[in-house]
Amino acid sequence: MERPAWAPRSIDISVPSVSRIYDYYLGGSHNFEVDREAARKAMEFMPGLPKIMQANRAFMRRAVRFAIDEGITQFLDIGSGIPTFGNVHEVAQSASPGAHVVYVDHDPVAVAHSQAVLEGTDGADVVAADLRKPQDILTSSQVERLIDLNRPVALLLVAILHFVEDEDDPYAAVAELRDALAPGSMLVLTHASYEGIPLPEERAKGTVDVYRDIRNPLIMRSREGIARFFEGYDMVEPGLVPMPLWRPDTAPEDEDPYAFSGFAGVGRTA
Amino acid sequence: MSAGPDGPEDRLRRFATIWSRAVFPVTSTSSTRPEFEEQLLPLARRLSEALRARTFDADAGKAVGAALVAAHCTDPEALSRSLDCVDAYLVLYCGTDGDQEDQRARSARLQHAMAAGFAQALRERTLAEQEAISAAALKAQGVVAQALHATEARFRAVFEGAAIGIGIADLEGNILQVNGALLRMFGVSEQAVRSRNVKEWTHPEDAPQTWKLYDELVRGEREHYHVEKAFYRPDGTVLWTNLTVSLLRDADGDPQYQLALMEDTTERRLLNLRLRYEATHDALTGLPNRTFFFERLEKALGAGEGQRFGLCYLDLDGFKTVNDSLGHAAGDRLLVEVADRLQSCATAPGEMVARLGGDEFVALTTGSDTEREVDDLAARIMNALIAPISVDGRELTVRGSIGIVEGPAGERSPAEVLRSADITMYRAKSAGGNRFELADPEADARAITRHGLTTALPAALDRGEFFIEYQPLVHLGDGSVRGAEALVRWLHPQHGVLGPDRFIPLAEHTGLIVPLGRWVLEQSVRQAREWRERHDGAGPLRINVNLSPCQLNHPGLVQDTVDILERAGVAPDALCLEVTESALIGADDDLLKPLRRLAEMGVDIALDDFGTGYSNLANLRRLPVSVLKLDRSFTQSMQQFPADPVDLKIVEGIVSLAHSLSLAVTVEGVETGAQAEQLRILGCDTAQGWYYARPGPPERLHELALVDATG
Q1: Which SUPFAM superfamilies match (chain A) (predicted)?
Q2: Mutate which of B122, B143, B146, B152 to test chain A, going by most A C-beta atoms within 10 A?
Q3: What Cα–Cα distance (Å) separates residue B673 from each residue in B344, B479, B693?
Q4: B57-75 residue pLDDT tens
Q5: What was the ipTM of the complex prediction?
C-alpha cells in the first residue's frame, strides 16, 4: 500500500476514534473498549445519540437517491468513517449501477477497514486524506481514476464539519472543494448544533465535553454558521432543516425527537 | 388461503406491520419503517408456515432470528420486542382453527429457536466485526510502521550526510550517537567519541556562561543555547565551532536527550582574527591604528570613578622634509623605527601606543596615577627619539612635539580629548618643537584647531574672507620690478590674518583648493591687467601664482586657466605658475601634459622650492619648466659675511646648469643687500625677499614699480 502523505506518527488504538464510536452508536462491533467507553459516557448525557446517527444515515440515503434522480452519478464522501451498512456506494449503485464513489477519511483504521470492505467492488475506492487539505483529495489517484471533475459531483460532508475547528478554517476548505467541482455539483451536508436537541444546552454540553476529552472536539455551530458552508450554492428545497424534515419518505411525526438535532441540507451550484 | 380483506395474506401483513412498528424504533437500520416492514414480511411468512407445519422445524425459527441481526436489529431490545410480538400475535394472526394450546406451544418453541438463532448470528457478526476492525487497525499500523521506517531512513541519511556535525547525548552527558561530519571535525573514530562525556570537553577559552547554559539545558530550564566554543582535538590542535545545543523532550514533555549541532568555524575564526587585526592595526608599523586607539580611549574614558587617563599626542618635527627629500620609502623606514621606539616606551599594563596616521602617534596610559605617569611617559618618548635614526646609511635626527592631556575618566569624549591633545601638540610645535606641553583649557580655547579651520574653509570662500598680497620680483641686474608673486591670506573673523601654511594643506585635504586656487588665479590675473593698464610704460609686469599638487591633478586646470586669461584679456606670457619640486617628483607624462600645454601657450612654469627635495637635475630636462626658484635655504648662509664657499659653489653650479638649460633662476628670501649683490654676481636673474619688499597690497607694488620707472 502506498504510504499516505499524512501518516500519523503512530496508531494508538487505546485512544478513542470518532468513526469507531459512530459505528458503536449504529450497533456495530467495529470498535474497541475505549471507543465504547467514550460512547457510553456521551450517551449518559444524550441517550438518543444513536437516533441522531440513524437520522444522518437516513438523510444521506435520501440525499444520494435525490442526487441520482437529478442525474449525478459521482460521489465524493469525505469523512466516511467505518462503513457498516447502507453506504453511499450501496445506495447509489442500487439506484444507478454505474455510479462512482470515492470515500475519504483521515483515520487510518477506518481507511484500512474501508479498503477491506470495498475489495472487489467496482466503482468505489477510499482515499486516506484530510478534509483540511482539499488538494490532497482532489489530486489523489483514486479521485483521478473514478471522478471526472468536468462533470457534476455530489460532495458529501455528512457529520464531519462539526469535527473541524474554526482555526483550521473549514469554510475555506469547503469553498476550495466547491471551486474545484464542475457547475451543477451538489453539497450534501449535516452538522451538529445545540439547536433542535431535545435537552437543555447544559446537558448536551456534557457530550461535547466527552469529545473534547478524547481530543476530537465537537464544534456545535448555529444554523447561521452552518448555512455559511453553502456559500456559492443554491439551496435545494426545503433548505437547511432538521434531518427528518428534508424530503421525508415517511411522516416526520413518527421520528424520534433526537433525530431533529442539528441541521441537514443540500445545495447545488449553477 | 385468499387475499381478501380478512384473508390469511392480509392477516400476515397485519402481523408484519405490528412487528415492524414494535421493533423499528430500536433498530439501527437506515431504511424507512415501511421498507423495514417489507424486510420483516418474509420472516413473518416463514414463522407463519412453521407454526402450521406438520412437524416442528427449529431451523425456521433460528433463520428468522439470524435474519433480524442481518437487518441491523442488533440491539437486544429488538429481540425482546420481536419475541413479545410473536408471542402475542403469531397464533392470533397466523394460527389455524385447530388446537390453540398446541399452536401456542409451537409458537413458544419457535421463539426459543428465534432467540437461539439471533444469539448465534449476533455472536458471529460481533466476532467478525471485531476481527475486521482489529485487522484494519493492524493494517493501518503496518502502514504507519512502514511510513515511520521510511521517515527514519530518510532522517538517518540526513544525519549521516549532513555537512554539520551532529551529536546526541543523554542528560548525564554520555554521548550516544554522532555523525560522520562530527568525527571528521574532531579527527577521531566513533568509538573514541562514544565512550566520552560532553562535560569533559572543556577548553580554557570557554566563555563564562557556556557551562551555565549547559546546566540549565540539562535541567530542562532552557530549550536551547548557542555559543562559540573551542574543543581540543586528540592531536592537540584546536577546533572552533558554532555550537547549538537543543533539549529533546519525549511525548510527555520530559527532557530526554541533548542534541548538539556544530559547525567548524576554525578557518573562519582565523580569518576573522586576521581581519580584525588588519582593521585595527597600522599596516606599516604594526602599531594599533586610529580605530583601535579610539576603542581603547573610549574604554579608558568610560572607566569607573577614581580612574584617570593620560595621553601623549606626538607629531614629528620636520617629517615632511624627510619625505620630500629622501622619498617616501625612507620616510616609511623612519616611521617604523620611531614606532618601535615608542612601543618600548609604553610596555606597562594599561599603556598603549598607536599611530593615528602620517607622522602622528599617540601613547595612552590609564589607571589611578596617570598624573605622574603621563609625564614620565612623555619624557621616555622624548628620550627615545634622542638617538639619531639610521635610514639608508644616513643618520637622521628626529625630533617631536608632544601635546599631553591628562584627567579623570568620565568627563570628556574621545574626540574632545584628542582635539585638546592636537591643539596642545601644535602649541609645542609653534614654541619651536622638540618639547612637550601640557593641555591647558584656556590655551585650547584660544588655539586654532585644524578641525575648526577645516570646517570654516568653504564658508570663508563664499564670504570673501580671503585676500591676496603681492611680493615683488625684482630683476637682479637693474633692480627693476618685473612682477610679483601672489600670496593668498585668510582674514579669519576670530583669528585674524592667517598665512597659507595654516590653511592650504587643509584646503588640499578637503579639495577646496580647486575653487580657492581658481579664485586666486582669477584675482591675480585681473590684477595683472590692472597693472598693465595703469603703467603702460614700466614694461610688462608678470604675475606668479602657486599651483598646489591637487590643482595639478584637476582635469579642468588648462581650460580654467585659458578661460581666466581670455576673460581678463591677459596674454599667457604675463602668467607664471609655480609648482613645487616635490609635486613633480615621479610625475609621469599624464601629469605633465597639462603643464606642457600651458607652457606651449606661453605660460611660464616655475619650479618652486628647488633644492629642498630630491633635486633631480637630470629630471629637469623633461619638465616643461622655464624658471627655477631656489629655496631660501641656499640664500640663508649668504646673510653672513663671508658666505660659506661651498654654498656659493653650489648656487653657482645650479645657476650655470639652469642657464645651460635655458632656465631663468629666481631666488627667494633675500634679506640683505650683501645677499642681493652676491646672488647677482652668481648670475641669478630675479630675486624676492624682505630686502625689496614684504608681501603687501597691490597698490604697494604699483608704487614700487613706479619708483623703478621713474628712478
Answers
A1: S-adenosyl-L-methionine-dependent methyltransferases
A2: B143
A3: 51, 11, 12
A4: 999 999 999 999 999 899 9
A5: 0.84
